[in-house]
């Protein structure tokens, strides 16, 4: 039978655990509050991008509006960083709190960048835009890659809407971009997990865009300039 | 359309990702190999403890056999530590690989300790036995607590078998221990997760042991010496 | 474009495939017919064993009735063997057809054997009873082990019914048998599959039987002869 | 109760099972390692074929690059064969380990062959290319057929991209090939399983290609030479 001394030692130990579990609980509470703000900014930034599917003029205005949320994102990620920096080595302990939101943030930044430049926003550029690169807090590579898959998933709808709006060169641009992205993903040795599953969707996106490109081509709607320019073929 | 320069930059970036993902995959592969060894040692240590439920003599021999596996556990946890130490700050990234096995290891060590001393093996003592306490690799507190829940789950069966074997004082000892453990868990502010669920099981274990204690008492089977000694009540 | 020659070669190849697939389909059809007979015999043999849970006298008669189905089982397994022997190396191609039935057959044979002798029917004895041991057709070890798990699952109910019928020595016999069986399974390095899952159930069966043994002991119902005989302790 | 002799016999039997289960586990471990290599080669070979959808010139170069992986495939299949050859009659016991990868390998080889010759790669030719035909290790016919279904699934996308690139004769070639393939599958008496399900997809692929052919024809884009030559119709 346990002596009373043992009982007190047991209690003392659990009292120490309580402090640590409460501390960890407090971290999670702070993270939840910050991530709730993040959800808000994401929602508004997504809303600001809706017109790209329908505006006749692509509009620097629309992109400027979307980019105007970047400082808010920076502020929120700096709050996340600060919380995690106080707990060295525990980034992955709390990663789940901001993981899915980060997928969407990467999507938003990379989609805006693509609309702006038709190029790929690099992982380093995401970290620069969010101002997060440090020893203790960075953007996980797999989160970045899933964000890119989200961009891919958005593009077929975008292409369909652009063509409807009379922009017949869009399918060629998107098809080239997705084809490059698809090839790049092929470099990776993906294990059978979430990322692999998301990658499998890329092929479907590419195929869909190629079908739109086909429709445009077969009807002779593509600009002759585009097909004639050997630098772009 | 992406320029060729962009296409190459994309490829270079993904090539770098490939290296990092492959590196992380190699870590997981190494962890899996070590954890397979851990599974083996756990299995043998569990087998060595089976006689405690049936041996007429409790047997220092049985406990010595069980303890003889501790050096093997130390070796395996030192291998885990070594792999993780090479990746500062990524303990929780790979934690899932050894989590469930660690629950069982804590159970085995704490059960052996209880059989030996009727006392609780502390978190610090678990780390000392496994020789793991360091900045980079320690036993997560929640894993330790779940291991204790496993001890609790084992005790009703143990009590039933001890009484069957004629050891009528065992229920009182176990009931006192579980009652203390239950009180100690009550100190914690458990969230609605695995640990809370496991804690809910403790109450059932305690109730079951108390029923055995009742059966023994009501039939006048408990030793009068034991009930008469106020120091042990 | 394919030439006509190619079209004909394609057709010739598929014609050959048709023959092979039809042949394999015919094998499956024959197996299905034989396994339907097996289902019938299993059902009758199971029915013949129902009285063991309730008969006051265990009854050589009941066991003899159950054993009377063994020749039918032999006949059916010899038909299975014959079909598979015609297809060297394809035992595991068609294994699924008789797998689950074989679990039950092993259960029935091993349960009858236990009722008869309180001992374990070995894998070799199963093959001898079914008259199947050959190069091309044998009883898969995992199927045998799952059959034993089924025996374990049956024993708690059996013990409860025997005690109800006034046989107070039964729990001790069964507890000893299950405890040995549980220890024996611990020797195996089970992977995380069906067999491992079934093994996890053994512990529950053992615990249940131990509780019945406890009930009998605490009420002083066990025969003193049994507890006094050191050869059986 | 079991005698001690029985307990020891039980243990001896399970010790023998342990050896056999461990041996089978070791086989699976070796297969997993080899199949991980296979995944890598498949990934690279798939990447090498991506340009066929977009290159203006079909490019012997692209096909040569793809074919350059065949020796690696041969090496890996010879390793699989070697492992299985040590276990006569157990090909189908372990078949699941390489089944899905073999579907993709057949797809890759047959697609390259079609790009090269517009003809169908036969089952025998697959085995010759992989250098596997032996008593103990061959390519399962159903795996070959599923690989062909994968070729069919790839062709609509290929046709769409070829037409977009201005190759208006491609739809007719592909339509003829798929039509022959569809007829050939019709010869088979498919059961209600994976293969039947995949075959159902063929019809959709053929329909899609025929629609492209229609689009091209209705717009007068097909070369008159092609339609005029009766040898190719």
UniProtKB/TrEMBL annotation, chains A, B, C, D:
<dbReference type="GO" id="GO:0003729">
    <property type="term" value="F:mRNA binding"/>
</dbReference>
<dbReference type="GO" id="GO:0016787">
    <property type="term" value="F:hydrolase activity"/>
</dbReference>
<dbReference type="InterPro" id="IPR016069">
    <property type="entry name" value="Translin_C"/>
</dbReference>
<keyword id="KW-0694">RNA-binding</keyword>
<dbReference type="GO" id="GO:0003723">
    <property type="term" value="F:RNA binding"/>
</dbReference>
<comment type="function">
    <text>DNA-binding protein that specifically recognizes consensus sequences at the breakpoint junctions in chromosomal translocations, mostly involving immunoglobulin (Ig)/T-cell receptor gene segments. Seems to recognize single-stranded DNA ends generated by staggered breaks occurring at recombination hot spots.</text>
</comment>
<dbReference type="GO" id="GO:0005737">
    <property type="term" value="C:cytoplasm"/>
</dbReference>
<dbReference type="GO" id="GO:0043565">
    <property type="term" value="F:sequence-specific DNA binding"/>
</dbReference>
<keyword id="KW-0539">Nucleus</keyword>
<dbReference type="GO" id="GO:0005634">
    <property type="term" value="C:nucleus"/>
</dbReference>
<dbReference type="Pfam" id="PF01997">
    <property type="entry name" value="Translin"/>
</dbReference>
<dbReference type="InterPro" id="IPR036081">
    <property type="entry name" value="Translin_sf"/>
</dbReference>
<protein>
    <recommendedName>
        <fullName>Translin</fullName>
    </recommendedName>
</protein>
<comment type="subunit">
    <text>Ring-shaped heterooctamer of six TSN and two TSNAX subunits, DNA/RNA binding occurs inside the ring.</text>
</comment>
<keyword id="KW-0238">DNA-binding</keyword>
<dbReference type="GO" id="GO:0003697">
    <property type="term" value="F:single-stranded DNA binding"/>
</dbReference>
<dbReference type="InterPro" id="IPR016068">
    <property type="entry name" value="Translin_N"/>
</dbReference>
<keyword id="KW-0378">Hydrolase</keyword>
<keyword id="KW-0963">Cytoplasm</keyword>
<dbReference type="InterPro" id="IPR002848">
    <property type="entry name" value="Translin_fam"/>
</dbReference>
<keyword id="KW-0255">Endonuclease</keyword>
<dbReference type="InterPro" id="IPR033956">
    <property type="entry name" value="Translin"/>
</dbReference>
<keyword id="KW-0540">Nuclease</keyword>
<comment type="function">
    <text>Exhibits both single-stranded and double-stranded endoribonuclease activity. May act as an activator of RNA-induced silencing complex (RISC) by facilitating endonucleolytic cleavage of the siRNA passenger strand.</text>
</comment>
<dbReference type="GO" id="GO:0016070">
    <property type="term" value="P:RNA metabolic process"/>
</dbReference>
<dbReference type="GO" id="GO:0004519">
    <property type="term" value="F:endonuclease activity"/>
</dbReference>
<comment type="similarity">
    <text>Belongs to the translin family.</text>
</comment>
